[in-house]
Design goal:
single chain; alpha/beta; seven-stranded mixed beta sheet; 10 helices; 7 strands; about 35% helix
Length: about 300
């Protein structure tokens, strides 16, 4: 299905309404639990691992793997090739966090191929959002950010931290990569640790290959602002006209503040913003209920 690490697809209930699950990260890979939000009696659930993570090869945990052909635009093209390969005319798109960004990029490029959209923990991966997550949140977690900053060489700590991490994650020395991955995920863990669904080691408990691929791809994307012009997804939201959408966002999301989802909802007339008061980025029972309700409602609409 593709020459250079094309993602793998998994599908259930082939007669159901096509729905593509777009995972976060970037670089997290898919898990079977991502299907739980769907009624399998209504949906043809399609999961795919984005380039160089999960089951997609070559894997980013290998520092010899070239990531130059792993960009937002490559992933959008992969999604479109996957749709054509599976013979899907239009599909619902569901995802959260980084998955929101990729869904918006795809839908704005191929609006005629999208039936509905459900986003959770909305991001658009603008430079302002990246700067908030990796610098601004330091106002709330100064000691944890000091340790994150200390994860790169001293002469790079006042420069582009994310680019420095990207270089470390491509180092041939496995100990260098392991230390950098630990420092990065310790920061990610700290940002979500106090949420309703937060856990002390939510990111750092991943198996080593998955952990290193996640950090390497995150640093690769975020140090390049995902190869997106600032505010382009917001500016081009008019291309989503006619596509029903539900944006589910936690009011307590420290790393991805509500303002992003609110601005998108104002620019996309067919979208409905649902704010979950008890939730952060990792969700809650109430947030899962809102996502399931949106998918059930869209699942009752025949594909076409």
């Amino acid at each position: 299905m593709g020459p250079d690490g094309h993602p793998a697809g998994v599908q259930d209930h082939p007669e159901g309404k096509p729905a593509l699950v777009v995972h976060g990260g970037p670089g997290s890979g898919c898990t079977p639990r991502q299907r739980r939000a769907f009624d399998p009696g209504r949906y043809r659930i399609i999961l795919f691992d984005q380039r160089n993570c999960g089951r997609s090869l070559p894997h980013a945990s290998d520092p010899a793997t070239d990531l130059t052909t792993n960009t937002t635009h490559h992933l959008v093209a992969d999604m479109e090739r996957l749709r054509e390969h599976l013979g899907v005319d239009r599909w619902l798109l569901y995802g959260g966090s980084w998955g929101s960004t990729l869904i918006l990029a795809y839908a704005e490029a191929h609006p005629e191929r999208v039936s509905e959209i459900v986003l959770a923990g909305v991001t658009m991966t603008r430079r302002s959002e990246i700067d908030w997550l990796y610098r601004g949140v330091a106002r709330f977690l100064p000691e944890q950010w000091r340790r994150f900053r200390s994860g790169v060489p001293e002469d790079e700590r006042d420069g582009d931290l994310l680019a420095a991490y990207a270089r470390l994650m491509s180092d041939p020395d496995p100990d260098v990569r392991a230390r950098a991955a630990h420092a990065w995920t310790a920061w990610e863990d700290a940002v979500i640790a106090h949420e309703v669904n937060g856990a002390p080691n939510a990111y750092s408990d991943r198996p080593s290959p998955a952990l290193q691929a996640f950090v390497r791809i995150c640093a690769h994307y975020f140090s390049n602002a995902a190869w997106l012009e600032e505010d382009v997804l917001l500016r081009d939201a008019h291309r989503l006209a006619g596509i029903p959408g539900v944006l589910v966002h936690g009011r307590l999301d420290l790393g991805a503040p509500l303002e992003t989802a609110w601005r998108l909802a104002r620019a996309w007339p067919d979208a409905r913003l649902v704010v979950v008061d008890d939730s952060g980025h990792t969700g809650s029972d109430a947030m899962r209920g809102e996502i399931r309700a949106a998918l059930d409602r869209f699942g009752a609409v025949p594909p076409g």
